[in-house]
Amino acid sequence: MIRIGLAGWGDHPTLYKESGAARNKLASYSRWLNCVEVDSTFYAVQSQELMHRWAKDTPAEFRFVVKAYQGMTGHARGGGSGYKPFPSEAAMFEAFRESIVPLQEAGKLAAVLFQYPPWFDCTRQHVDMIRKAKQQMGEVPCALEFRHQSWFAPEMREKTLDFTQREGWMHTVCDEPQAGDGSVPIVEAATDEQATIVRLHGRNAEGWVSAGQPNWRDVRYLYRYNEEELQDWAERLHRLEQLSQTVFILFNNNSGGDAADNALQLMRMLGQVPPRGAFETVKPAEKAEQLELFD
């Protein structure tokens, strides 16, 4: 099964053109796509109440890929300060695990995505950190995404994949600009029979290295996949589908609002239809005209 989704649900105007659609964006989103990546959990551990609301606002077959809190992936550097506002690493992991319980109980948690930072290179210390992180997550399904090229250097590619599988992680296949050490190639592989994650970040090489610039959010993921590129991905997805029961493909190329359009384009290519049953939308003015017919 191939599930198509986006990174977040708040910033995709293509999906909210119909009257009232923006009032509850997650509910409206779930009528277009059947999975989503949650990014807010990277910046703060969210409350169980919020997770419960997300579960309630989506249909039974909907799935969430939840990003791990930044302190859990080494983004907050500086020793113990990376655990703040928690007193310890153990307390941080415990708080995160407790926060996602409502999604687990609803059967809607696809995976927790551990996206490690660009400086997180392939070293013994970092291997041990990954191993410890998985141990602290227990039986929670987890996906692993690297940003440093050393993990998939020719001599390390198979070793990294073997480690990922052995430690019980899902492999995350990434499509991103090839811009030095802080990027990885497309590694078409699966390490988990149940699921594989695919994340499409775009191919804007200049924007990819804009971290630290005032407008980095506006340019980092500024890219629209063309027909040929999406067709290549449709073929890759079919191959990955032979290796994992479910393949989640998540479009993160949304600096210019392209993610939703690309997702729906790929859906058509794969012969899928949105959960709502149709791609066509009814504009508010058109609805008004239809109602006037019965006045």
From TrEMBL:
This is DUF72 domain-containing protein. It comes from the Bacteria.
